Amino acid sequence: MRVNWGVIGACGIADRRTIPEGIIPAKNAELVSLMDVDEERLRKVAKKYGKVRYYTKEEDLIKDSEVEAVYIATPTYLHHKHVLMAAEAKKHILCEKPMAMNLHQAEEMIRACRENKVKLTLDYMMRYHTYNREIKRMIDKGELGRLVMGRAQLTCWYPPIKGAWRQNPELGGGGSLIDMGTHCIDLLEMLMGKVVEVFCYKDHLVQDYPVEDTSVVLLKFESGALGIVDNHFNIPDASSENRLEIYGSKGSILARGTIGQDSSGWMVKRVEREEKGYEAAQKREEVKEEQVILSPVNMYQQEIEDFSGCILDDKEPSFKGEDGLRNLKIILAAYESAKEGRTVKV
Prior knowledge:
The chain is of the alpha/beta class and 346 residues long. Helices cover 36% and strands 24% of the residues. The protein contains 11 helices and 15 strands. It has a 9-stranded mixed sheet. α5 links the parallel β5 and β6. α5 runs antiparallel to α11 and α6 runs parallel beside α8. The protein starts with a strand and ends with a strand.
């Protein structure tokens, strides 16, 4: 059995990644219709994927009786509107991140999906990355001991582009923090537990647009562990490591390239085999660095197959609307912290 998918906002990230890497190869999904306001580009995208219907109005796609699930890949300010429309039409929903422009919108989206008995999830596809899942497994088995610190970095070069909605705070809600930091915070919460307090710095250092091109967030987790999230729109892509680092009382994991849109990556672990005294613990050469080599599995495909399976089997998705709301609360707390120069509890 397959779930029939429609896509609202088909000419951006949907066409670059989620459709070709997720919906098309997914074993339990079928692409049946597309929607975008740019008809010229939309026609080319539709032709690329074969016999799929296309529309220039979202209400026409949502009225398509064959569509069972909708992937909403529109700018952030439209998420609230499109989720409500899809929920009222009884369509299951995969919505791009961040969830909404504010908490009230996010709560309404959750309520509409609950009342209409449709499933809602958010596009945090990095949760499905092979290496990130292996890190989660190692942590859950206690291989790193007590977690003490984590760092997640996602950075790129994003110069001023005329009409780019991500560079307009009224359309995207912010800059590098809300666009990329949302993924980093989600990964650290997946690995290290709930965030309870944040402190944030943000600024405009290079790019000439009204949203931040630089942000660093300090996180305090429920366990007492600490975290760092750094996101920039002003560092060349080739110079960015996009690091994920996890440190615990028994060792560490250092990963590169597992945060981002690619399903590949590189990872090493340094893990103590047994408890050691002070002198032994200082001898770094006795702790062998091991490269972890795993076969990459496309995270977009894994995400689409997982959510389609939840629809077919009538199960709750692993990442629910409430989780998206929580992520948004942390992001907005970080912006409040940067504005007021103080720590903010979540």
